[in-house]
Amino acid sequence: MRVCTRRRSRTLRVWFLFVFLSLHFLLALLVLSMYNASCEIHLYPDTQTSNSLSVQNTSTSASMADMTGSEIQEEEMGDAVTDLAKLEALYSHPLYNLPTPPVPDGDWLLKVRSKRKDEAQHSSQQWQSANEDGYDPVHLNTSSDSHPPWLRFHLGISRWQMYQHKDPNLSTLTHQLASYRIVSAVQKSGGTQLKLVMTFPNYGQALFKPKKQERHEETNVNLYYFSDFERHNAEIAAFHLDRILGFRRMPPVVGRIINAIKEIKDITTDHKLVTTFFKSPVGNTCFYGQCSYYCSTEHAICGHPHKIEGSLAAMLPDISLAPRRSWRSPWRRSYSRTKQAVWETNSDYCDAVKTSPPYDRGTRLVDLIDMSILDFLMSNMDRHHYETFEKFGNDTFLIHLDNGRAFGRYSKDEPSILAPLVQCCRVRRSTLLRLRLLSLPPYRLSDVMGASLSQDPLTMVAPLLTELHLSSLDRRLATVIQTIQDCLQQHQHHSDVIYDDITDYSG
Fold first, then answer.
1. Which of 46, 110, 290, 308 is deepest in the core (most CB within 10 A)?
2. Cα dist. 466→80, 215, 257 in Å?
3. Are the CB atoms for 384 and 372 separated by under 8 Å?
4. The CA-based dihedral angle spanning residues 350, 355, 360, 365, taken in that order and rounded to the nearest 10 degrees
């Protein structure tokens, strides 16, 4: 009886335990299911909302970016169109279109001489015999239409300017400089830095200066002016500035990208140049040539991997046809780290210059002051000599060559470059009027300069001058105008300061 009672009691305890555990298990499942349901209700909607907002924000941002980019592009295009309109308006201004008398025969640098039939045939044969490979057949006659652009440029040089204001040959010449096939490349002798003479199929030649410095870089403040690099974009910008100022005393210059292998090494006859070619550690083609200072592996010109940026300047007529005379500038620097030139310590230095030939008569002094204004605007301290064509004697323009050390710094102006203007207080009236015109908003110098440079092929790579360089032109222009104004206040008679070269202009 007791045994049965104990068994039933044990069975009941086991059964109660089983029920108890089952209930706890069911309760746990219920709680877990409620927890999962709760998580589903709160988690998924938040995630979906977050994803939706994320997509919406991304879409909105992209749309805003597109709109901003489009607006920026439209604004830049609008500014470019406006600046080009300013440039066109500048070149259409009466100051740039003053009536000029016909050029006398003796005031042209070169002239095509008519020849007898037998002489012309012999000359034509000699013309084509320079090289049988790569050159175009050329037949010259007295008609300018038969002349290649480089020869038309040479024939257009006169006593007072390198080319005419609206010379239709200028665009043709610069286009050929930028695109014509190169058949020969040799190093130009002399100088402190590497330069190459490029020859084209029509026998034209150009001086190539390779890229050595990025456009945004400033010259190292610890470098002396005579240790600075020559910049290809400075040569291009100098040509455009010289034209904008109305001087037109500089040969045309244009930017171009050259293949160092196909357009230099493979076609050169300069064996010494070939020996300086090498591959850089990253596989770029480099060369350094032979020159006084900056021709070594440390200063090599390197492509990316073969292409090299540079400037191409139209060559002047050969000195056998048009000899040039080199003149030492009275305001030449000492080119010493310790010594100063006389003009740097003597404020009355110009009094002696004015009484010395060739500055004692004619326009030579105001020509030199024009050049100092040009140099100050582009911060070129390296003007130790200048050249003229011998044919014209002392009565001619100064050739504005070698401007590679310009536009080195935009953050600092060098007042000593203006020493000829400050010490002599003399300036052309036409120069002053154009400077004042370029200070006005409709013709602002930085705007027209940027517009002019935008037409160069290398602008497709990057602007030839940064905005900081362009804005420095406006700042320096104001300094030049103020300097002239100070001179006018110092002298009772304006005629002592202003050399009136445009007496018929009433503007």
1. 308
2. 15, 7, 19
3. no
4. -10
Q: What is the CA radius of gyration of the chain?
A: 37
Query: Measuring CA to CA, how many Å separate 417 from each of 297, 367, 384?
Result: 33, 15, 12
* Token duo for residue 359: 């500055």
CA distance 174 to 458: 13
Q: Which one-letter DSSP state was computed for residue 415?
A: G
**505: nearest Cα among 426, 438, 434:** 434
What SS3 state is found at 168? coil
- How remote is the C-alpha of 384 from its chain's centroid? 22
Per-residue pLDDT of the chain (507 residues; tens, 9 = 90+): 444 445 555 565 656 656 556 655 655 555 444 434 333 333 333 333 333 333 333 333 333 334 455 554 555 556 777 999 999 999 999 999 998 889 999 999 998 876 655 554 554 444 443 445 677 665 555 556 789 999 999 999 999 999 999 999 999 999 999 999 999 999 998 777 899 999 999 999 999 999 988 888 888 776 666 667 889 999 999 999 999 999 999 999 999 999 999 999 999 999 999 999 999 999 999 999 988 777 888 889 999 999 999 999 999 999 999 999 999 999 999 877 778 899 999 989 999 999 999 999 999 999 999 999 999 999 999 899 999 999 999 999 999 999 999 999 999 999 999 999 999 999 999 999 999 999 999 999 999 999 999 999 999 999 999 999 999 999 999 999 999 999 999 998 899 999 999 988 887
Kindly state the tokens that stand for 446: 């930085």
- Identify whether 442 is preceded by a cis peptide bond (ω within 30 of 0): no
SS3 459: helix
C-alpha closest to that of 412 among 213, 241, 220: 220
Q: Alpha carbon of 339 to those of 96, 348, 384, 416: distances in Å? A: 42, 19, 15, 15
Q: What is the greatest pairwise CA distance in the chain?
A: 158
User: What is the residue whose two structure tokens read 């652009």?
Assistant: 149
Q: What are the structure tokens assigned to 487, written together? A: 């001179």
Residue type, 288: Y
The single-letter code of the amino acid at 158 is S
- The residues that are catalytic are 382
Q: What is the DSSP letter of 183?
A: -
- Tell me the DSSP string of 310-372: EEEEEPPPPTTTS-EEEEE-TT-----SS---HHHH-TTHHHHHHTSTTTTSTTHHHHHHHHH
Given a contact cutoff of 8 angstroms between Cβ atoms, the answer to whether 238 and 378 are in contact is yes
Token couple for 142: 């007295």
Name the β-bridge partners of 258: 308
> Do 231 and 212 form a contact (C-beta atoms < 8 A)?
yes
Query: Which residues, at least 6 apart from 178, have a Cβ–Cβ distance to it below 8 Å?
Result: 254, 255, 256, 312, 457
CA neighbor of 382 nearest in space, from 347, 337, 417 = 417
Phi-psi region of 260 (alpha: psi -120 to 50; beta: other; left: phi over 0): alpha
Nearest C-alpha neighbor of 369 from the set 388, 383, 389, 352: 383
